[in-house]
User: What shape does this take?
Amino acid sequence: MPRRDTAEYDRELLERMEPKMFAVNRMTDRLTKDVRGAAVTIALVAASIIATVSTIIAMHTNKTLATCAAVGSFAGVLSACLAPTRSDGVAILVHEGALTVTGMNTMIVHYTKSKLEMAVVDYLFVALASWAIIVILRIIVSKKMLECFLMVTLDTVALLHVTVILMEVLDFVDHPLANNLPFELASFFVTVASAELGHYVFNMVTCQLMHRLLWRWKHMSSRVSMVLDFIVSVLFGAVGMVIWMLVGDTDMSTWNIVALLGAVGLSQLGRSFISLIHETAMAPSWNRGTYSVWNNGIMELMNPFLVGWIVFYPYAKTILEAELSREK
Assistant: This one.
């Protein structure tokens, strides 16, 4: 069977994966038919109206929450309107709502001493409620059992993989004592970013230089290549961690090093998992048939930081508790 042309493959893959319309198009086709940019305009207007209403309500309730309510509602409604389908739009709105509620709850706990403090809910309860809403929505909308099962599975993965982890990040970053530990917080991002740099350097060397200089490299097993990629990435992360700790004069305790290296290792495994999903679906990153160092999609770029936070979050909470007891 002759090999397909790369440009033809890219074009066919793009046609299959790119959405043909937005969730808001059904309304724009009725009201503003054949008007260019109507979908984006209506999405922006709707998001602005909802954000304004949310801000007014927050101002009358608690002024501290006004910005959080405005940004969360605007981003949620805009993303929902520009989703591929209406059910996807509702799912996105639920995810964004979970993040907004978590941010507002955290700000109420740590920054205000109002009567609203009794109404604070745990972010895990918010995640569970969001999951229940999404599952019920998919069951109502989907006409086929297999389609419903796949959509619920993907929504669950998204909730656990993105939303819940971002809710943990919000819970830490919004804590007032987090301002006292800037270098400890930055060490996580520097370490994971250094590991990602190692991953990109390894792929650039193996995919471009080695294929030209060493013909035997082409026949190397993919498993061996993945193991070497993992080792190089972790080494780059360790070097970046040491350099940052020396520059920032941060705590070089054993638990600090273990937490950061564990975050690096798990982040690289998470990125490999995303790559495996693309290979299984025969859909390369960023809809490209050829590899390039910079052709990764937004999830490939976010994934290492999100997954790595799973390991770093318990240690980060321990740091905050130690700082809180020290101030008392």
Observations:
- The longest helix spans residues 182-213.
- The mean pLDDT is 76.
- Residues 22 and 82 are 5 Å apart (CA to CA).
- The chain is about 75% helix and 0% strand.
